[in-house]
Amino acid sequence: MLKISCPWCFERSEEEFVFGGPSHLARPNNNDEISDKKWAEYLFMRDNVKGVSLERWGHVHGCGQWFNMARDSVSHKIHFTYKMGEQPPKNWQSICGGDDE
Amino acid sequence: MQGYSLLSLARNAISHHEGWQKAWRSPELKAEYDVVVVGGGGHGLATAYYLAKEHGFKNIAVVEAGWIGGGNTGRNTTVVRSNYLFPQSAEFYDFSLKLFEEMSSELNFNVMLRQAGMVTLLHSRHDVEVMRRNLNAMHMNGVDSVWLDAGEVADIASGINMSADARYPIKGGILQKRGGVARHDGVAWGYARAADALGVDIIQQCAVTGFDIKNGNVCGVRTQKGNIKTKKVAVAVAGHSGVLAEMAGFRLPITSMALQACVSQPLKPVFDAVVLSPAAGVYISQSDKGEMVMGGGLDMYPSYAQRGNVHTLEQVIAGVVELFPNLSRVKLMRQWAGIVDIVHDSSPIIGHTPVAGMYINCGFGTGGFKATPAGGFTLAHTVAHDKPHKLNEAFSLKRFETGAFIDEMGAAGISH
Ligand SMILES: Cc1cc2nc3c(=O)[nH]c(=O)nc-3n(C[C@H](O)[C@H](O)[C@H](O)COP(=O)(O)OP(=O)(O)OC[C@H]3O[C@@H](n4cnc5c(N)ncnc54)[C@H](O)[C@@H]3O)c2cc1C
Ligand SMILES: [Zn+2]
C-alpha cells in the first residue's frame, strides 16, 4: 500500500486517491484543422513508462484537489509530489535516477 | 514428436518413465529467421504454431525473455467463455472457444478443459434488466446463454448466500454452459510442443532489446543472445507492449496495470462452475486440485510490478465472503499479480503497427487467456498475408483514429 503525500494534506493512504493519467498533456486547441491521427495521439496514445514518470493524481476521498506525482512504475517509489500548474524541477529525471530497482 | 497416448504411457511405465523425450528442444538462436515472434506466452506460441501449420512457414523463432508461459499465461484464473456483447467480439471469442474445444486433440496435449459453465450473478432489479438485454444480444450473436432463476443459481453455486437480507441478494443469473476453465500451463506447453515439432525454435531467457528498422521496414531484432535478421516480426508481449513499441519508435493506446488473483487451500468439491458477481467485484471457481481460485478488479494505477496491492486483495476476499459465508474460515494459500495491457475499450489490438513488417497482438488486458487460440490464429494470418483475417479486422490500431470502438466493459464489467 502506498503512502501518498498530497501537497495539501500530507501523508495519506493510497485508498483515498485516484490515478488520473499522465501529467502535462496539453490538449490541442486547433480543433478545426487537427487530423484524426493527431487527435488520437492526444486522447489515447500513451508512453506507458516502465520506470519513473510524471502522473496526475486526485485526492478524491480527501481534500478533492488534483496534483502531480513523480512515481516509479516498477518499484512504486514516489519521488515527489507538486501542485497543479507547477512544473517539476528541470533535472527531475536525474533526481529520480537514484537507487531504484 | 513422441505422441502422448494410453499406449505410450503404458510403454513408458515399463521403463519407469525415464525414456520420455523433452517436450520441446532448446536450440541455439540462428542468425536469420523468416518470422520472429517476440513473447513466449500463449499468444506468441499459438502464433508460431499457426504460422507453421496453416501458412507453411519453416523458419520461425519464438524469443522469450523469461520462461514460456511465465507471464500472464501462467498467472491467469483460466476462465474461458464467449458471452460477449458486440458481434465482432462474440464471433472472435466464440471461434476461440471452439478452438479450445478441439485443442487437446489438435495439440495431442491434455489442456484439461472443463466446460462446467460460467454463471454471472444478478443482485438487483437493474442487474436483471441489463442482463435480459445482454442475453438477447448474445442470442442474436449465436452464443449459448441461458437465464437462471434464483433457485437454479443456488443449485449451481452451492453455498451461496440466499438470505433475503444478504448484502448481495440473488435475483437470478445467466449461464454460459460452454464456459469453464482450462489448464493455462497446459495451453502454453501444448502449443510450444506442437510448434517445436513443426520446426519452430523456442528460445528462452532471451529478452528482445531493440529492432533494426530501415525506411520504415523492420529488418532485424536485437536480443540478449545476439542479433537476428528478419523481415517479419510478431509482437505478443501483453503488459510489455508499450516497452517494445518504444523500441520500435511508436506508441500504443495501452496502460499497463497489475491484476491479481489468489487461491485457497485445497478443499473437497464445492461447485463446478465459474461464478462471477459484477456487483461484488469478484469471481470464483474451484481448480481440479481443489483450491478456490479467486480474482477481482485491477489495482487502479500503472504498474510493472508483478505483486499487487493488499487492499485490492482485501476487497476481493470481502466480496467472496459476502457471497459464500461458508468460505470465511478457509485459509489463503497464494496470491500473485500479472501485468496486463489495458485499452480504452477493453478490446484487443491485433494487426499492423506503424512499422512495416511488424505486427502486434496486445490489449487483451484482463481477459486474453480465453482468446489464446484465436489471437494466435488471427495474428499468424495477418503476418502471413500482410492483411488481417476477417475475425480481427475490427480489432486494428486504426479504430483509435476512426472511433470505431468495440466497448466490451459492459459485457463483463469485471476482469477475467
Ligand atoms: C491475475 C490474472 C487473471 C486473469 N484471468 C483471466 C481469465 O480468467 N480468463 C482470461 O481469458 N484471461 C485472464 N487473464 C488475462 C490473460 O492472462 C492474458 O490476457 C493472456 O494470458 C495474455 O497472453 P499473452 O501470451 O499475450 O501474454 P503473456 O503470457 O504475458 O506473455 C508475454 C510474454 O512476453 C515476454 N516478454 C516481455 N518482454 C519481452 C522482451 N523484451 N523480449 C522477449 N519477451 C518478452 C514475457 O516474459 C511473457 O512471457 C488474467 C490475467 C491475470 C494477470
Ligand atoms: Zn489532499
Topology:
The complex is a heterodimer of chains A (101) and B (416).
Chain A: E1 3-6, E2 10-13, E3 18-22, H1 36-43, E4 52-58, E5 66-72, E6 78-83, H2 92-95
Chain B: H1 6-14, E1 35-38, H2 42-55, E2 60-63, E3 79-80, H3 87-107, E4 118-122, H4 125-140, E5 146-148, H5 150-156, E6 172-176, E7 180-181, H6 184-197, E8 201-203, E9 208-214, E10 217-223, E11 226-229, E12 233-235, H7 241-247, E13 254-266, E14 274-277, E15 282-286, E16 291-302, H8 310-323, E17 332-343, E18 349-352, E19 358-362, H9 372-385, H10 399-402, H11 409-412
Parallel strand pairs in B: 1-2, 1-12, 2-8, 4-14, 12-19
Antiparallel strand pairs in B: 3-7, 4-6, 5-6, 9-10, 10-11, 13-16, 13-17, 14-15, 15-16, 18-19
The complex binds flavin-adenine dinucleotide and zinc ion (ZN).
In words, what does this structure look like?
The complex is a heterodimer of chains A (101) and B (416). Chain A is mostly beta strands and 101 residues long. Chain A has one domain (3-95): Folate-binding fold. Chain A is built from two helices and six strands. In chain A, strand 5 and strand 6 (78-83) form a beta hairpin. The longest helix of chain A has 8 residues, at 36-43. By secondary structure, chain B is of the alpha/beta class. Chain B has a domain at 111-179 and 256-343: D-Amino Acid Oxidase, subunit A, domain 2 (D-Amino Acid Oxidase, Chain A, domain 2, 2-Layer Sandwich), CATH 3.30.9. Chain B is 30% helix and 25% strand. Chain B contains eleven helices and 19 strands. Chain B has an eight-stranded mixed β-sheet with strand order 5-6-4-14-15-16-13-17. In chain B, helix 2 links the parallel strand 1 (35-38) and strand 2. In chain B, helix 2 (42-55) runs parallel beside helix 6 (184-197). The longest helix of chain B has 21 residues, at 87-107. Chain B is globular and about 65 Å long. The relative contact order of chain B is 0.19. Chains A and B meet through helix 1 of A and helix 7, strand 13, strand 16 and helix 10 of B. The complex binds flavin-adenine dinucleotide and zinc ion (ZN). Zinc ion binds at residues 6, 8-9, 59, 62-63, 65 of chain A.
